[in-house]
Write a structure and sequence with these properties.
By secondary structure, this protein is mostly helical. 69% of the residues lie in helices and 0% in strands.
C-alpha cells in the first residue's frame, strides 16, 4: 500500500504502543476498508493481506468493529480535522483582495492536503451512515472548528442572506466539503485534475457572490 502521509502520521504517534506486525494489520485494514467497505471486509482478509495469523488481530482488537473504530478515531483526530484546519492561520493572516480570492486559495489548499489521504477519508464517508460512534466523533471535532475566525475574515455578518455568522460559515463549509469529497472520493471521474484551479475559482465566485452583496466587498 502507498505510504500516505496521514497514515504515516497516525502510525508514528502509536510507535511506542504497536509492533511492526500490528502496524501491518492496521495498514491492511485501512486499504481493505477503503476499497471494499467495512461490512464486506473480513478479518481473515485483513490477516492474509498483512501476512499474519487471524488471531494476531484479536490480540490487539477484540472485534473487527473495534479495529474500525480505532482507525476512524485516529483518522478524524490526526488526519481529517488537522486537514480542515491546517494552514488556516496563515491564510487568515494574508491580505486578499476580496472574499472570492480568499475562498479560491482556501479551496486549492484543502484540495492539495486531501489528496494525500483519500483512502483514509473514504472510510469515514462510508461509515457515517452506519456507525453512530463515528458521527459522535465528527460532531465533537466539528464543534471545535474556528467559525468565528472564518466569519470575521469572510465578512459573513455583512451578507444580505439574513443568516447569522455561524449559519453562514456552516453553509460555506458544506459547499467546500461537497466540492472536496465529490472530486476526490465520490465521483472523481467527472472532474479532471487539470481543472482544479478553475473549478475552485468558480465555486469561490459562486459562494462569494451568492452570500454577499451584488458588489464584492474587500476583506
Amino acid at each position: 500500500m502507498e505510504e500516505y502521509s496521514w497514515l504515516k502520521n497516525i502510525l508514528e504517534q502509536e510507535i511506542d504502543r504497536i509492533t511492526d506486525k500490528q502496524k501491518a494489520i492496521i495498514k491492511s485494514a485501512v486499504e481493505l476498508f477503503s476499497e471494499k467497505g467495512y461490512a464486506a471486509t473480513s478479518t481473515r482478509e485483513i490477516a492474509k493481506k498483512a501476512g499474519v495469523a487471524e488471531g494476531s488481530i484479536f490480540k490487539l482488537f477484540p472485534t473487527k468493529k473495534d479495529l474500525m473504530l480505532w482507525i476512524t478515531e485516529r483518522i478524524i483526530d490526526t488526519a481529517l480535522f488537522p486537514m480542515v484546519t491546517s494552514g488556516i492561520s496563515e491564510l487568515l493572516e494574508k491580505n486578499f483582495k476580496n472574499r472570492e480570492e480568499f475562498l479560491s486559495a482556501f479551496l486549492q489548499n484543502r484540495m492539495a492536503l486531501m489528496q494525500e489521504g483519500v483512502p483514509l477519508f473514504k472510510i469515514i464517508i462510508q461509515e457515517i451512515p452506519f456507525q453512530p460512534e463515528v458521527r459522535v466523533m465528527l460532531l465533537e471535532q466539528f464543534n471545535k472548528l474556528p467559525f468565528n475566525m472564518l466569519a470575521e475574515k469572510l465578512g459573513a455578518m455583512e451578507t444580505q442572506s439574513g443568516l447569522g455568522e455561524t449559519d453562514t460559515v456552516k453553509i460555506i463549509i458544506t459547499c467546500i466539503t461537497g466540492f472536496l469529497f465529490l472530486r476526490n472520493i465520490m465521483l472523481p471521474e467527472l472532474f479532471p485534475k487539470s481543472r482544479i484551479k478553475e473549478d475552485a475559482a468558480a465555486l469561490a465566485r459562486f459562494m462569494s457572490r451568492g452570500l454577499g452583496s451584488e458588489k464584492e466587498r474587500d476583506l
